[in-house]
Amino acid sequence: MALAAFTGAPPTQDQEPAVRRKSGIALVLLLPGVLYLVLFFLTPLISLIITSFQAPVVDGDIGQYQTAFQWSNYTDSLAEYWPQVLRSFVYALIATAAALLISYPLAYFIGVKMRGRPVLQNLLMTLVIAPFFISFLLRTLAWKAILSDDGWIASSLKAVSILPPDAHITGTPFSVIFGLTYNFIPFMCLPLYSTLERLDIRLLEAGQDLYASPWTTFRKVTVPLSMPGIVSGTLLTFIPAAGDYINASQDFLGAADTSMIGNVIESNFLVLQNYPTAAAMSVVLMAVILVIVGVYVRRSGTEELL
Amino acid sequence: MAKGVFAESGADLRLEGIKKRFPGFTAIEELDLTIPAGSFFALLGPSGCGKTTTLRLVAGLEEPTEGRILIGGQDVTRTKPFQRPVNTVFQSYALFPHMTILENVAFGLRRRRIGDPVAKAHEALRLVELDHLAARRPAQLSGGQQQRVALARAVVNRPALLLLDEPLGALDLKLRRQMQLELKSIQTEVGLTFVHVTHDQEEAMTMADTVAVMNKGRIEQMGSPEILYELPATVFVANFLGQSNLFAGPVQESGGETIGVDVGGERIQVPRSRAQRTSGYVTVGVRPEKLTLHETPETIPSGANRLGPGRVTDVSFSGVSTQYLVDVPGLGTIVVFAQNTTSGPVAALGAEVWVAWDPGHTFVLADEPPADGRFSDDADTQAIAAQARERMLTELEEA
């Protein structure tokens, strides 16, 4: 639903009859995709929803559940884990905002200022996505080492008394948000770059010609015109960041008091074998994200832009 | 730029010793120009002559390498575009795609905090007869409509100076004519100073009070359209503004009111006032429509300039007039436009004819004539296209 906002222009009226006439061909073309979605998205989703209502087998082993309609799975797990749910969205929101603030100038520089130098442009974009050549886990572990108590950053900050001697950088909300921001910057940068690269400079000249200062031109012309990139970039960052369980994990940049909804789902599925709770939390995560994204896309008015 | 108030009236524009160099080439060699307030000024020239750069310098979108720009007596050379009392109608229109037509037009008013921007924007849209489309977006309008919106968006601000960068380039002939008239009437109505950049000589001549012909980063000649046409000063102007027949020859007599030039053995008389040079080897010219064709030299009135005999090599009918190409040995091809006042051609293809004209229509140009006596109009796009076609044909033959 949300993706429809930035995948293409709405069909113009004179195109529609032709499209309808060829609907037979369209169905055939859609078939593989539909089959794929049914098999790998719809089936697991239904199974997840069924699991989320299951009840433990009476006198059964740990991890044995039977089909039921136990609403309390939702209410109980929300009552227990609401701090983690809230934390997930707050962290994801801050990380998304930070990634946007870092990526927008970067994408603007590469996409607008570097125009006419395509070699340099491509080189810089390669550098932006270069982290993908190394595993996500390895990079996050590397940051754990860099930010660790005996790492040079922490020790030099302590040496100049910016940090108290007993403070840590890892295992704090800061390091978790830092990790989320760092890991999702390429996802923010790529869509921003692709819209800013197409930004018509002549419109900025027109803005300045019509008495708008560079800052007003940026607010009134550049930002609205790069809205598709901003929306897709923030969605591509916010959605996975809200469900992320690596950065907030105690093995990586987090601590017990920074765990997010992803960590809850992970431990319930894999450690506690409390499948219904894990499934319920997964459904909650998905529902909340759907609502947030729906409101966001509607409010940002990006359907009209494309 | 004061907020909340319009310019009282058009302002004059002065360019002093402007030079503009880009890395690798010089766009403007040397430019001194004064455009009086309230006039309709056209900068005419082929593409790449520096006319758009001149406009961008005035708008503040480029900075001159050297020189000063004064608008209404105020030095604006170092001020930013948004601080100048200038608006531009861009060649690409540059309408904001994310705003409605109304918001596009109100944009400048809102930035300057002028009272009641919506009503004023509607008024400007009524002026270009597009008020009924105020709620649409630019992408929903045709090219001609977008052009009018761009015009309304600039005019609504009542700038002291309105810059038009080939704004009619994308329109078809009929709409172009209509827009030319509309532009002219808007200019008269609101009394702004218009600076219009174009490569279309007809457009420049019909609309502007003053035309400056630009070539290779310099102004070749400036004046009213009539003067530029009747009395071109250089070969470039003579060929760029309409067509000309040009001949080279030495000045034989320069005593009295007229000077005599020897062209292919004939004595061509030119009034001294119409000659840029009066001695040595000079370039003589006359417009094709001033020429008359004669089958015998007897019918030529005495005192007229004449050349011939030559042979008619081409006759092409174009409605109001017929174009004849006359090949005169030693002088090359002479173009003659004859009004179709009688039915049937004045001279038949292959006929032997003399051409004659009133000495008062002759002019002598400032340029040194080329050594071989032939004039190549290097900047004429038609000539370039013809040369390209010829080159292509020879290549095809060789292949």
TrEMBL record, chain A:
It is found in: Cell membrane. One of its GO terms (cellular component) is plasma membrane. Residues 85-296 form the ABC transmembrane type-1 domain. Coiled coil: none annotated. Pfam families: BPD_transp_1 (PF00528). Its main location: membrane. InterPro entries: MetI-like (IPR000515), MetI-like_sf (IPR035906). Gene3D superfamilies: MetI-like. GO terms for biological process: transmembrane transport. The chain crosses the membrane at residues 25-50, 89-111, 123-142, 174-193, 221-243, 278-297. Keywords: Cell membrane, Membrane, Transmembrane, Transmembrane helix, Transport. Belongs to the binding-protein-dependent transport system permease family. CysTW subfamily. This is Spermidine/putrescine transport system permease protein. It comes from Leifsonia soli. The lineage of its organism: Bacteria, Bacillati, Actinomycetota, Actinomycetes, Micrococcales.
